[in-house]
Amino acid sequence: MPSSSPVIELTDVTKSHRVGELSVRALDGVSLVVREGEYVAVTGPSGSGKTTLLSILGCLDRPSTGSYRLVGDEVAGLDETVRARLRGRRIGVVFQAYNLLPRSTAYENVELPLVYAGISARRRPPLVLAALEQVGLGARARHRPGQMSGGEQQRVGIARALVAGPALLLADELTGNLDSKSAGDVLAVLDQVHAEGTTIVVITHSDDVADRASRRLRISDGVLVGDQARDQTLTSGPVASP
Ligand code: ADP
Ligand code: MG
C-alpha cells in the first residue's frame, strides 16, 4: 500500500524553556513523521514534554533547534504573526477545559475561527452547521456552554477545531474533565472524525484514549522512547506507519 503524504515532519527538534538564568530542555532530539489519515496518541509521565510537543506541533510555539515541516512547509523559523495565520488555516486544537466563550452560543463559538479566517458571512452558516452535525449537535446550535453537559461542550470544542477544515487536529487531554460516559461520547466523535479522513494527534494520560488511536508514541524526559502501531503490541521499537 502506498504511504500517504506526511502532515508532520519533525527532524531533530529540541526545545528549551528559559527559567531565569537556567534553561530547561523539554524536548531533546525529537524526530517524527505523521502521515495523512493517522490517529496518533502521545503518552508519557507528567513533565516529559507532551504539552511542549503539542505547542510546537500546533505552531503555538517554535522549536529552539531542528526542523518542523507542516504539510511540506518549513515552519520552525516563522514569527508569531505568520504562525498564527498558518495555525488558523491548517490546525484545529481541542483543549482539556474546552475554552468556549461562555456568553456565546454553540453556533457562535464554532463560527469564530471562520470569522478570523476572513470567510464571508454568507459562506459561514453551512460550514458551522455541518461541523455541529459532524459532532452530533445540530440540535444544540442555540445553546450556550452553561446549558450543555461537559461532553457536549467538548463536542462543540471539536466542531470549532474542525470547522475551517484543518489538515491536523490536535488535542491535549481532551477527556480530562469528563466522566467516563461523556468521555466515551467524545472519543466516539473522534473515531468518526478520523474515519472521515482527518489526521489526529492526541496527548493523553488515559489508556482509554490511547487505545482508540492507530499508533502510540511514548515520550520520556523529552525523548521519544516508543512508537507502536495498534494491534502490534507484541512488537517493540519503531513500527512503520500505515
Ligand atoms: P508534560 O505536558 O508532559 O507534563 P511539559 O511539556 O509541560 O510536560 O514540560 C516539560 C518540561 O519543561 C518540564 O520540566 C517543565 O517543567 C518544563 N516546562 C514546560 N513549560 C515550561 C515553561 N513555559 N517554562 C519553563 N519550563 C517549562
Ligand atoms: Mg502537559
Written overview of the protein:
The protein has helices spanning 50-57, 80-90, 106-116, 124-134, 150-162, 180-195, 207-210; strands at residues 6-19, 22-35, 39-43, 65-70, 73-74, 91-94, 168-172, 199-203, 215-220, 223-229. The chain has 242 residues and is α/β, with parallel strands linked by helices. The strands form 2 sheets. A 6-stranded mixed beta sheet has the order 6-7-8-3-9-10. A 4-stranded antiparallel beta sheet has the order 2-1-4-5, covered by helices on one side. Helix 3 (106-116) crosses helix 4 (124-134), helix 3 (106-116) runs parallel beside helix 5 and helix 4 crosses helix 5. The model has no long low-confidence stretch (mean pLDDT 93). The structure holds adenosine-5'-diphosphate and magnesium ion. Residues 17, 19, 24, 26, 44, 46-52 line the site of adenosine-5'-diphosphate.
